[in-house]
Amino acid sequence: MHIEGLNIANLANGSQKSFSIDDERKVRVFYDKQISDEVPGDTVGDEFKGYVFRITGGNDKQGFPMKQGVLVPSRVRLLLSAGHSCFKVRRSGERRRKSVRGCIVGPDLSVLSLVIIKQGENEIPGLTDVSVPKRLGPKRANNIRKLFNLTKEDDVRKFVIRREVTPKNADKKPYTKAPKIQRLVTPRTLMHKRRLVTVKKRQQEKSREAAAEYAQLLAMRQKEQRERKEELRRRRSSASRNSVSKQ
Fold first, then answer.
1. Could you give the 3-state DSSP secondary structure of residue 175?
2. Which of 8, 85, 129, 233 reaches 20 to 30 Å from 247, CA-CA?
3. How do residues 193-224 score in pLDDT, each as one tens digit?
4. Which of 149, 181, 189 shows the shortest CA–CA distance to 162?
């Protein structure tokens, strides 16, 4: 029992390729390593000479994924909730006990996922000699400015990357689609922001006036209540004096 395959990704050009492993001695260098460890690829094969890989994950024979932070070379059952990897929340506040594989590499893994950190001397066909273009361009306004080295005075809307879509129906013409630019500052957004500020100030002024009016009304009611109490006290004292004088 040994690791049967390697999924190697090249982040520089966006390509990815799977390799089957027949000899266990080629993958022994990965044993007892953890996720995020960097491993030289000289022993994996002659085509990987000079390459350095980083372990990013993997699956065991039954398909359970490796989870970062679980420092065991076997499968465990953990109580997972929202925010944890290897868990999809289906209800708000849901927790569930699930089986996950530890982050330490062992011979029970079926596939190990790697990322090229350092490229070696030889090119790997289908991995380092190809370039996979990005299907979608940036969507946020600042990212578009960063990509095209624009200033704040330039109009970002003229630099949006459009992609051509070919309809399934051959009678229809191809058309282009572009993403909606996020966090784009336009005169309309500025006007909307000014309006919100004005509405907020108006509400604050209204609440201050209502508070002052309430304080004035409360003071008047308290004054009336004090006057009534004083009047009642005077009546009682005068009544008591009259009763004493009659006696």
1. strand
2. 233
3. 999 999 999 999 999 999 999 999 999 999 99
4. 181
* Lookup: tokens for 225: 């209540």
The rounded distance, in Å, linking the Cα atoms of 107 and 32 is 9
Structure tokens at 21: 């492993």
Write the DSSP assignment of 88-134 as a string of letters: ---STT--EEEEEE-SB--TTEEEEEEEEEE--SSPPTTTTS-----
Helix (H) or strand (E) segment spanning residue 161: none
Q: For 4, which DSSP code?
A: -
Give me the helices (H) in the chain, please.
Answer: 141-148, 187-246
The rounded distance, in Å, linking the Cα atoms of 43 and 34 is 18
Nearest to 39, CA basis, from 51, 26, 23, 25: 51
Can you tell me the distance from the alpha carbon of 65 to that of 102, in angstroms, rounded to the nearest whole number?
8
pLDDT at 240: 81
Looking at the chain, the whole-number percentage of residues with pLDDT higher than 70 is 99
Calpha distance 42→50 (Å, rounded) = 6
Kindly report the backbone phi and psi dihedral angles of residue 216, in degrees, each rounded to the nearest multiple of 5, phi listed first.
-65, -45
- Look at residue 179 and give its three-state secondary structure: coil
Element housing 40 (H / E): strand 38-40
**Tokens standing for residue 209:** 């006036």
pLDDT at position 241 over 90: no
Tokens of 115: 């990322």
CB neighbour list of residue 219: distance below 8 Å, 6 or more residues apart:
none
Residue 247 has pLDDT above 80, yes or no: no
Spatial neighbors of 139 by CB under 8 A, at least 6 apart, are: 179, 180, 181, 182
